[in-house]
Amino acid sequence: MTELVTTIIETAAIEPGATPPLPMRHLYLVDGSGFIFRAFHALPPLTRADGTPVGAVLGFSNMLLKLLGETDADAVAVIFDASRYSFRNAIYDAYKAQRPDAPPELIPQFPLVREATEAFNLPGIESDGYEADDIIATYARAAQRRGIEVTIVSSDKDLMQLVDDGIRMLDPIKNKAIGPDEVREKFGVAPDRVVDVQALAGDSVDNVPGVPGIGVKTAAELINTYGDLDQLLARAGEIKQPKRRESLIQHADLARVSRELVRLKDDVPDLPPLEALAVRPADPNRLVEFLRTQNFRTLLSRVESRNANRAAATAALAPVAAADAQATSAEGGAAAPMPAATAANYVLIQDLDVLDAWIARATAAGAFAVDTETTSLDAVTCELVGVSLSIEPGEGAYLPLAHKVEGLDLTGGAPRQIDRDTALARLKPLLEDPAVLKIGHNLKYDAVVLGRHGIQVAPADDTMLLSYVLDGHLHGHGMDELALLHLAHKTIAFADVCGTGKNQITFDLVPLDRARDYAAEDAEVTLRLHRLLRPRLLKERQVALYETTERPLAPVIAAMERAGIKVDPVELKRLSRDFGERLAVLETEIHRLAGRPFNVGSPKQLGEVLFDEMSLAGGKKGKTGAYATGAEVLEVLAAQGHALPARVLDWRQLAKLKSTYADALVEQINPATGRVHTSYALASTSTGRLSSTDPNLQNIPVRTEEGRKIRRAFIAEDGHVLMSADYSQIELRLAAHVADIPSLKDAFRQGIDIHALTASQVFGVPVEGMDPQVRRRAKAINFGIIYGISGFGLAQQLGIPQGEAQAYIAAYFERYPGIRAYMDRTKQLAREQGYVTTIFGRRCWVPGIKDSNPARRAFAERQAINAPLQGSAADIIKRAMARIPAALTEAGLSATMLLQVHDELIFEVREAEVEATAALVRRVMEGAAHISVPLVVDTGVGRDWETAH
């Protein structure tokens, strides 16, 4: 290292008369360039209101806040790459030549990451001609010479050559320290020989050539045998393996070049001195403004809370701080560093007295987080294995109830655990205590599990639903994702404790020590998420939506899932046979139309028949070389009058009905109840709608006779009937309300046929004696408009020329200009703020509203138009569902709510209570919202679902 560089890095100017700075003790060097890529790939896509992608910026900012809050470092710097070219390209022009360009959505985030660094008042350092790793190496070695402890915040393998006495690495995603042992585990050699191993093995990512035929393992063996690269190359002729020997001799110069490429420079000139990296407090106003601009609401809340706490603590501790300063001055030494945050303290509960102590603490606290561990994701059939609890951040407990192994030795005896019935009897009063808040993540699942053991969990808060109400479809709402997003904490993966694939074990076979850490972490992280998310409800005006819609709905849905619905297996098997026979007939007809037999279920073979052999127009090949034969392609061909694609569409629909419902539903009948128990996802759609899985009962096609036959297999118990309660044209009513269309609102108030009215006003024909075909077209326009339908889409739906369809739409807007105004207003609002809202304030995010691709942007605009209507309808039926069970109980009625299919509810009702139940359900559903048009609910009853509907 040159004398000039040494002077620049190791000294700092001190003005005459100034107090010399305290000795630097700990330096953090953050690999900014490496971390932004890790944050980008670790976190879900996220955009701010103007459409700018900011997911990686959020991950980066979270990491900085976490790091600054936990470290004892008194100096921190964030190091960046100035460009993708460095002095190494002069040594080897193909260096990093194969690296792809950064993803387009990451490029605008690079400058924002630098802005984030400045907002946190941290030095962001880069140098032309050098890589970030070289700058890190320069600072690390300079600090090491001065006895300063160094932590390199990165997991980059190229930086592992720097690990040494006083220099360690920290993986910020896994929160894992990397020292000499971890380096040896990865490379097979000590850190000072990593460069030699990399020189031999090369690096395909950076296009470092290395020696052909030698990988990391072989390179480590060679270096451990010969000492270093120079000795190895000098004695290469001694190697016994012919291919290895010849490769080393032939490519010796390539190995030496590779060493220069991977060896980090530790004398980068013209860098700020170490003292310039000293931690300085951030300007709260500047940091808050940056976070607010990026729409980082949770992070902003944490910063504001931390600032408020810091201000209060500073005021309270001012006298103590003054005394400490005097003592430090008198002793001539430095104050002790603030200790870093300790790891979470997780314990096992294996004795009743310990369980009682935790119950007492939870009761006194008035709130705690709870989670269950089970043998499967099916809440209705799984076995309860254990319960975890957390009362304070940083601590948690796991209560094992049905584990089969004690420790890592799977052959050991049964573990020590409290009898399940005894433990649950102790927990029941706490879990049902109205004065104690239970906090969970997707608590509906735990409520179903515990409900099977006679425990009704209440009152409860759900962090998944809090996140969903606050951030909607901006990101997923799984606990692992939220922990990374909001806490910068990577949780223990389920695969880490249970394995994957055929080697996966159920949780009851997980040893207690591993089960404790995994399960207790779930509860503890949930508690921390709750403390971050709950306060945002008030700040972001989402309290009413959460408290009146999402929160009260969760236990209602849990009860519906436990109840299930009865299915007739005999009818399903009969349908399966019938569908099978009809599929065979269709297949024969398809083969006749094709002129030869082929596999109808093979898209590749179908494409060849349609476009190569039959020469139909419109064939497009994908990347695999096969023709696209999706439903949209076949529908266009069928609309043109081609019989074969029309028959294939029929075949596909029938095949799906057979496999997905007629066959699969028989297997999904719970043998203990004789019923099918679907699971509802509460936080999976952009508009607030529920979705149904395992099995999906919301997608049974009802516009075809075959689909309606599937519904006939859903039946009521003896002495009961199924009752359907369905909102009539709710989205059209909401469109009339939010767009404020007087003629449509009057029609709904008077009970006029809205489709006939539209046909009359748009097409100029009288309502009396109207051609049903004309009304059908008006109906298609009415429903199509609220989905932002195009002229092309309407033409396809009605089977008319596109110009004629476009004329219909133009006539509609001319008659109802308020609809056009609503659509334009809504799209503009979505562009300005990134979301639209329902009548209850739910935010429906529209991430593609500013997409540069016209097709994707048009799709987002259609989403923006429909989302307030579909979302408001979802909110209304959710509000009704939350109120119905209590209303039934109060009225002394025994009906059970079984299913929700968008705008329809299905009940199982005693035959003697049908009339009273129908009247009550209509009253509650029609009163779930008060808008400028009446809500109307149609009810029907029958022994099976199809008849009831």
Automatic annotation (TrEMBL):
Signal sequence region: none
Source species: Stella humosa
Domain 5'-3' exonuclease: 24-280
Biological role: In addition to polymerase activity, this DNA polymerase exhibits 3'-5' and 5'-3' exonuclease activity.
Subunit: Single-chain monomer with multiple functions.
Family: Belongs to the DNA polymerase type-A family.
GO molecular function: 3'-5' exonuclease activity; 5'-3' exonuclease activity; DNA binding; DNA-directed DNA polymerase activity
Keyword hit for Mitochondrion: no
Transcription found in the keyword field: no
Domain 3'-5' exonuclease: 346-538
Catalytic activity: DNA(n) + a 2'-deoxyribonucleoside 5'-triphosphate = DNA(n+1) + diphosphate
One Pfam family per UniProt: DNA_pol_A
Gene Ontology biological-process annotations: DNA-templated DNA replication; double-strand break repair
PROSITE patterns (alphabetical): DNA_POLYMERASE_A
Gene that encodes the chain: polA
Domain (DNA-directed DNA polymerase family A palm) ranges: 707-913
EC assignment: 2.7.7.7
Keywords: DNA damage, DNA repair, DNA replication, DNA-binding, DNA-directed DNA polymerase, Exonuclease, Hydrolase, Nuclease, Nucleotidyltransferase, Transferase
Cross-referenced InterPro entries: 3'-5'_exonuclease_dom, 5-3_exonucl_a-hlix_arch_N, 5-3_exonuclease, 5-3_exonuclease_C_sf, DNA-dir_DNA_pol_A_CS, DNA-dir_DNA_pol_A_palm_dom, DNA/RNA_pol_sf, DNA_polI_H3TH
Protein name (Swiss-Prot/TrEMBL): DNA polymerase I
Superkingdom: Bacteria
